[in-house]
Amino acid sequence: MTDCVFCKIVAKQIPATVVFEDGDTLAFMDIGQVNPGHVLVAAKAHCENVYALDDAQAGAVFRAVARVARAVRAAFAPPGLSIYQANGKPAGQTVFHFHVHLVPRHDGDGMNLTWPVKNPPREKLEEYAAKIRGALG
Ligand code: 5GP
Ligand code: ZN
Asked: Cβ distance 54 to 24 under 8 Å?
């Protein structure tokens, strides 16, 4: 896609600091570096979000995520690692080309995701699950 920043990185039209590459994925340093070692694993093809991935791309991306995560752990020994992936503006997506964040984590590092649990009754879980099962392809 012509004005997509990650497509430009994949096409080497703009620079990025690459750590890993295979046929379907490119992993490079996030320019913002929430903590040192913050890497993005992106699909090489322009897929806007998780819904656009085919099975081969989805498999390739998570293989790359796990492999790069092991390397980040070996390189930085962070006490924690968050894997974060946003789809759509309400989820916090700002670059609309599928990517996964690997963020090394430290106590008190200021990164925050509030998690407002609702703890609904079991019948609600059954109702929600039935909807999802019915929608599975
Ligand atoms: P999102 O909010 O969509 O999950 O994350 C987008 C990420 O892309 C941000 O963390 C931002 O720092 C990173 N980013 C945006 N533009 C560039 C760029 O040109 N190069 C690199 N390496 N990262 C970028
Ligand atoms: Zn793109």
From this structure: no
Band (pLDDT 50/70/90 cuts) for residue 95 is very high
Element (H, E) at 109: none
The Å distance, Cα 4 to ligand 2 centre, comes to 5
**CA–CA separation, 88 and 63 (whole Å):** 23
Supply the pTM of this predicted model. 0.97
Angle (CA) 92 64 43, round 5°? 55
Find out whether 53 and 112 touch, Cβ atoms under 8 Å.
Answer: no
Q: Which residues line ligand 1 (CB under 6 A)?
A: 5, 16, 28-32, 86, 92-95
